[in-house]
Amino acid sequence: MNATTPTNPKKTARTTVRHHIKVLVIDDDPAVCKTVGLLLEDHGYRPTTFTDAQKALEHAAEESYQIALIDLKMPAMDGVEVVGRLKSIDDNMSCIVMTAYPNLDTATETMRRGTCDYISKPFEKDQLVDAVNRACQNLGLVYTNESDLNRLIGQRIRAERLRQNLTLRQLSDRTDLTTSQLSQVELGKNAASIWALARISNSLGLRLATLLDGL
What we know:
Elements: H1 9-13, E1 22-26, H2 30-42, E2 46-50, H3 53-62, E3 67-71, H4 79-89, E4 94-99, H5 104-113, E5 115-120, H6 125-139, H7 146-163, H8 168-175, H9 179-186, H10 194-203, H11 208-212
Parallel strand pairs: 1-2, 1-3, 3-4, 4-5
Helix pairs in contact: 3-4, 4-5
């Protein structure tokens, strides 16, 4: 792990949490995919890029994404069709169309299919990031600090434990974590390590990715 410079606690408390948000980027131009992917990573998102729309759709059917950035003009499949097929996979996915050929009729059609925004190429970096930020805010995906995320993880663990009629003691026996540690995690008062979350999810019969999906 790379060393990090200590930060001001007050500044950290205001940091927006985005590392849980997965963004699907579909553009037949590899240079655009690379640029957009790096830009999203720099702003804390988790992008996956595709230059082949069909492969992107197959991937989206297997792994959930909250946001999609889609080029309008692609050789094998245009962005209007891609938007429609992505929305049929997951109607909650927020789709943003990118195009160098802005057209009112096309914009109207993509909006009808389910896009939430429309960006003209070439775009400024801030324009793209602002569009993704707006989509996340509309979906309620952005947290203002880590404590919000810890609270939501804790709520999900507690709900699943109660659904299975498990006591804290029973979960403690399965995870080798103390009841006090588990209680603090469920209350969102302490951030659990990835190791601890993996033990908890496994003990609840869940994959870690499933436990954290959408958070």
